[in-house]
Amino acid sequence: MSYTELNCRVFPAEPATDILIAQLAEIGYESFVESDTGLLAYIPTTEFDAEALNSLPVIETNMFDISFEYAEIEEENWNAVWESNYEPVLIADQCFVRAPFHDPHPKATYDIVVEPKMSFGTAHHETTFVVAQLMLDIDFKGKRVLDMGTGTGVLAILAHMMGAEKIVAIDNDEWAYTNAKENLERNKVTNAEVILGDAADIRDEEYDVIIANINRNILVRDMNSYAKVLKNNGMILLSGFYGHDRIIVEKEAEQNNIQAQKHVEKNDWVAVTGQKIK
């Protein structure tokens, strides 16, 4: 499969880059790397639509100076592009997310090795970072976990390392599905199943913890599906949206008997924990 690389020149970088990432994700872009001049974004070439770029709300507002260049990039060239931009990430001095070519962190409790291969979820993006941060305060020992929009599988891997008994990871992108399986194997995760699909493919079984790092619209649309399989008193972690959208997500959660508890923010991206009440 070939991908199109979109080179976005963005000024000023903040908050325009974060807004641009969110809006590109909504039209199918799957992976993002921040650059010195703005952002590199990747989408399957078959889904690339040049005209759709000029219709993005962030462009139409004329609040920022954003310009695009794009070129097709073959699959075998992706890792070279990624490696040239990738740095490891340390979360709360406990979780270290790195590539195979990086050395482990000498003090991190959880050492996660991933190769994204176009998949979202390297902990560089704020949403993955803040969800992992919240996970570190949750007891996963013996728990059944559902990871929606798993991407690289990094959060499923962390759940495993923290003692989860069983993990089901779901993503609707075939590239992410394959990549997650590879990364789970790379990190010796033997108690996880990866499913190619979406909320319609959630099995009729109960989970102690649900992780859903997707985007606001999908979270709102699928909240009822999550609530149906979340155990009473079970925990859910929601992310993929901005601070001003938190009230929308929390309201939908409450309508499904999920009480918001706490949230963390990073560069206006938010993650929320909630608990299902009887």
Notes on the structure:
It is built from nine helices and 14 strands. With 278 residues, the chain is an alpha/beta fold. It has a seven-stranded mixed β-sheet with strand order 10-9-8-11-12-14-13, with helices on both faces. The protein has a four-stranded antiparallel β-sheet with strand order 2-3-1-4, with helices on both faces. It has a three-stranded mixed β-sheet with strand order 5-6-7, covered by helices on one side. Strand 13 and strand 14 (269-276) form a beta hairpin. Helix 8 (216-229) runs parallel beside helix 9. The longest helix is centred in the first third of the chain and has 14 residues, at 13-26. The model has no long low-confidence stretch (mean pLDDT 89).
Task: Please name the defining characteristics of this protein.
seven-stranded mixed sheet; globular; Rossmann fold; 2 domains; 278 residues; 31% helix; Alpha-Beta Plaits; 9 helices
Helix content: 25-40%
Number of helical runs?
9
Q: Give unreliable regions as ranges.
A: none
Overall, the morphology is globular
Please tell me the overall pLDDT: 89
Structural class, please? alpha/beta
The second-level CATH architecture of the largest domain is: 3-Layer(aba) Sandwich
- Give the ordered list of helices and strands: EHEEHHEHEEEHEHEHEEHEHEE
Provide the CATH top-level class of the largest domain.
Alpha Beta
The value of Rg in angstroms is 18 Å
